[in-house]
Amino acid sequence: MARRASTIISQDIEHIIQDLRDHFQALRGTTLLVTGANGFLCSYFVDTVAVLNEKGLNPPCQVIVVDNLQTGFSERFKHLEGRKEICFIQQDVTFPVNLDQRVDWIIHGASIASPTLYRQYPLQTIDVNVIGTRQMLELARQNRVRSMLYLSTSEIYGDPDPVFIPTPEEYRGNVSCTGPRACYDESKRLAETLCMTYYRLFKIPVKIVRPFNVYGPGLRLDDGRIIPDLMKSVLHRQPLVLYSNGRATRAFCYITDAVCAMWYVLLSDTNGEVFNVGNDEKEVSIRELAESVRQIAGPPWLEIEHRVSEDVDYLKDNPQRRCPDLTKLRRWFPWQPKVSLVEGLKRTLCSYLEGSVINL
Ligand SMILES: NC(=O)c1ccc[n+]([C@@H]2O[C@H](COP(=O)([O-])OP(=O)(O)OC[C@H]3O[C@@H](n4cnc5c(N)ncnc54)[C@H](O)[C@@H]3O)[C@@H](O)[C@H]2O)c1
Known about the structure:
By secondary structure, the chain is α/β, with parallel strands linked by helices. It is built from ten helices and 13 strands.
């Protein structure tokens, strides 16, 4: 019997496999390279393939995991130790990745994604987004890959004009190129330019996705993003602290909905296209999010407190509203977000209570 990542994550992976079904046949006998896979989002791609192989994908899909563990979790794949078809390379992707086998697919997700962490490591953030992406595009070119997926971000829109909420892919953004978040936003924008340049010059079959606030099991509790912060407070029986007035809004997307969308895009021939990925069901304020977490967590004593962060840049250039226009994604793929915010928060909290995730 194969070892499992965690009960909740195993159920999530089953949902992903059920959703895409025959689309995964394209992976038979091929090799997938995933960067940033010791992180939250990209670990789901590795777990998807591991389970597909267990279920008899024939020939199995080989997976190469590349991560320098800058923010990733070294124990993430303990359940996959000893698996012959999965190879782990601890490496910084700003340097060439030397491989002794051909790669057919690349999912490039390595980055420093938490605002708290990218403000702490601005140069590494710029390097991984720009140099790391160039390295992966070169690898894609040398290997003549079937498809490459680049995980960009909704942050490339900056703080959108409310007229452009929900935000379509054509919106060009309202981004500061000098502020404390620019190291992330601007380098992701340049990474998209690199992808499109390689597509135009060398016909690299690259696709870009822009995830909007994806959350779920496996987010590090010390990551600094709002949902793990609230979950950590619940687990430690401490007040839910908001370092803002709580009025900014976001549309949160549960991981399975995001990962299904990304698999569809990777396995398609939508080369040179950009897709928003998220959940447009409900735009909630950060205060409403905290109230939902309080209701789910239960204890009536759990307070919501507003404080001022000691970090003077904490709220600088923070988008006031963020909600995706998903018309394009729905037009191209048989995809719908399925997991409501309440259900997703319950699953996330359960996964932390299950003790499967680090830094409790
Ligand atoms: N989670 C979201 O809501 C969200 C939203 C928008 C964009 N994204 C993008 O999706 C991708 C994955 O995000 P995540 O939330 O899983 O973040 P994460 O921090 O959990 O994972 C990122 C991984 O990249 C690795 N990494 C960082 N620098 C590296 C380098 N130089 N070489 C090799 N590996 C390196 C880290 O160690 C980590 O394991 C990122 O590109 C991020 O920008 C995520």
